[in-house]
Design brief:
Layout (H helix, E strand, L loop, with lengths): L6 H17 L13 H18 L17 H14 L7 H14 L2 H12 L5 E4 L15 E5 L2 E8 L10 E7 L10 E7 L5 E6 L8 E12 L3 E2 L5 H14 L6 H18 L5 H29 L5 H29 L32 H9 L9 H12 L12
Parallel strand pairs: 1-4
Antiparallel strand pairs: 2-3, 3-7, 4-5, 5-8, 6-7
Length: about 425
């Protein structure tokens, strides 16, 4: 693992920094910068077009599909500089980061030509249709079905925890296309239009009053026959490829938000005297040490990618990293509350006095949500050990597939 980036990568870093300085709002890099609600709305509307104009959306994609054809190293530098500037890097998370790379790697030429340009231009929005009410961690037990009817698939079933389902134009959906096959073998990965009869989206209201998660009901909904990625009944492998993109997208940048939190905690503990508690100091150092482990593991992943290493250890590293950082962050937010004491219960409380919290971006807490930004981050951290694969399931996978431990006993009737 060479910690020194090559000269051409550093030259590219200078180019990215210059572009960001020229295109982000005036004052973005100054301490205490804020935008009004109107300015924020305008920024959110205009920024995707600026990204597209600069060629930074999916810039590592080949030029024939609209990308810049950046090398892996250039892609890493691009992600690092956007993270350093705290600048949004995507037009649509699910399109840019999950289904787009999946189509690029496993889709047909027709699918690439149909969907990739629209993802790059921000013309279509996507949601992920994987989890079901009784098929979350055990995703292969899903019950939603698709039956071929001429040139279309007819879909029936329910999905849940579908983020941004209410705004999406398409859903990359897992359905059962062969009920007689073993549960991992009879699943297909479909690109399903959302704006059609037979698709009903119901928001799941969260404690903060938002409903970005949804239930989605499919009742004789239709999907073109050719909108299957990876072939009929080949969906399980494609789903795992998509989850791999989700877990590996920020190998050298994810630690940065945790470092910002750590620095805030130390500063607050010095101000209120909590730093004098040896247990608090020990927990702070534990958090710092784990952040550095996360940083080094990110560099290990990068090195393996650059070297083209594709062994079981690389796969296991991706799985264990997800477990590691999500549990680390859950514990860290408990530490944040302990440093604050009862002040953490105050609606407008924050370490720095401006109501914000590292990792939540430049937005403030939602009106009417009776907790501080820090407490909101604490609540959200509880979910991080669940989405993208629960820690319990990841441990089973690592134990059974990589350590050779006995498989978990099945429940009666399975």
């Amino acid at each position: 693992m060479d910690l020194t980036y090559p000269p051409d990568a550093e030259e590219f870093r200078t180019e990215i920094r210059s572009w960001l300085e020229q295109n982000l709002p005036k004052g973005w890099f100054e301490p205490g910068f804020e935008m009004s609600a109107e300015e924020r709305k305008k920024f959110n509307e205009e920024w995707p077009q600026k990204l597209y104009g600069g060629g930074w959306i999916c810039a590592t994609w080949p030029k024939e599909y609209g990308g810049k054809g950046l090398t892996t190293m250039q892609g890493v530098v691009l992600a690092e500089e956007f993270a350093r500037a705290k600048a949004p890097m995507r037009a649509d998370f699910f399109g840019d980061t999950l289904v787009g790379p999946t189509i690029l790697a496993h889709g047909t030429e027709e699918q690439k030509k149909e969907f990739l340009p629209k993802i790059l231009r921000g013309e279509v929005r996507w949601c992920q249709g994987f989890s079901e009410p009784n098929s979350g961690s055990d995703l292969a037990s899903l019950k939603a079905t698709a039956v071929l009817d001429g040139d279309e698939w007819v879909i029936n079933g329910q999905k849940v925890w579908t983020t941004q389902g209410h705004n999406a134009d398409y859903c990359f959906l897992l359905t059962r296309t062969d009920p007689a096959a073993p549960k991992h073998k009879g699943i297909s990965y479909m690109l399903v239009p959302m704006n059609q009869p037979g698709v009903e989206v119901r928001g799941i209201t969260q404690p903060d009053g938002t409903a970005e998660f949804n239930e989605v009901f499919f009742t004789n909904a239709r999907c073109p026959k050719d909108n299957i990625v990876g072939g009929v009944n080949g969906g399980w492998a494609i789903a795992n490829a998509t989850l791999g993109f989700e877990r590996g997208m920020s190998a050298t940048t994810s630690y940065r938000r945790f470092e910002a939190e750590y620095e805030e905690m130390v500063a607050a503990a010095k101000v209120n005297g909590a730093i004098g508690d040896p247990i608090i100091r020990q927990r702070l150092m534990m958090y710092y040490s784990k952040i550095q482990l996360l940083r080094v593991n990110g560099l290990r992943s990068l090195t393996q990618t650059l070297n083209g290493t594709k062994d079981m250890g690389v796969i296991a590293l991706g799985l264990t990293n997800k477990m590691f950082w999500s549990e680390m962050h859950r514990d860290a937010l408990e530490l944040a509350l302990d440093i604050s004491g009862t002040n953490a219960l105050m609606v407008d409380y924050s370490y720095n006095g401006d109501g914000s919290w590292p990792g939540t971006g430049r937005e403030r807490r939602r009106p009417g949500y009776p907790v501080s930004a820090m407490m909101s981050a604490f609540f959200f951290s509880r979910s991080e050990t669940i989405w993208g694969g629960t820690s319990q399931i990841q441990r089973n996978i690592v134990g059974e597939r990589f350590l050779g431990l006995p498989r978990e006993p099945k429940a009666a009737g399975e």
